[in-house]
Amino acid sequence: MTGGKARPRTLSRVAAVQALFQSEQSGQSAETVIDQFVRHRFGDVPGHGGLEDGHVAQAQVPLFARIVRTATLQQDTLDAMLVSALPETWPLARIDPVLRALMRAGAAELWMADGPPAKVVINEYLDVAHGFFSGDEAGLANGVLDRVAHLLRPAEFSAEAQS
């Protein structure tokens, strides 16, 4: 994470990516996975390590849960946007499952009109991607989320163009 010390909102996003991955891989509902994370990965749990052990003590539960729920409830719409933003040679099903979860989480947060500015969301998920990947995946996520942001929040970019 940026600056060596993870921030609570960033940890919420990391946890959301992990939860979406877990839900997809296990077939468990989003609500089941949210409950598991809240009970076993958040807060100070004796005997549990840090982020490398999947423990996100300082994550903000409301943000985490909202991202996971939005990604799940709007998955068909968000996936269609992700597909349109991906290169034709990269179908969504071919994308690494963690990267797919990350892009879904980022798209879900961009879907939230009352959330942070699109550029903040994209930068946060770029940081998260660098935590999971060391190759070109972060660049792909950055490009895809930028395209989705232009679809979901065009006014943020048209105002920028007028400045």
Give a structural overview.
It is a single chain. With 163 residues, this protein is mostly helical. The chain has a single domain (2-162), classed as N-utilizing Substance Protein B Homolog, Chain A (Orthogonal Bundle), CATH 1.10.940.10. Helix content is 67%, strand content 0%. It is built from 8 helices and no strands. The chain has helices spanning 8-26, 30-40, 61-73, 75-85, 97-111, 118-132, 137-152, 154-162. The radius of gyration is 15 Å and the shape is globular.
Output the CATH homologous superfamily: NusB-like
- DSSP, total strands: 0
CATH architecture call: Orthogonal Bundle
Report the sheet with the most strands, covering strand number, pairing sense and barrel closure. Answer: none
- Shape category: globular
Q: What is Rg?
A: 15 Å
* Poorly predicted ranges: 45-53
Number of separate domains: 1
> What's the SSE pattern?
HHHHHHHH
The pLDDT mean sits at 87
Helix proportion range: 55-70%
| CATH fold category name | N-utilizing Substance Protein B Homolog, Chain A
Distance between the termini: 31 Å
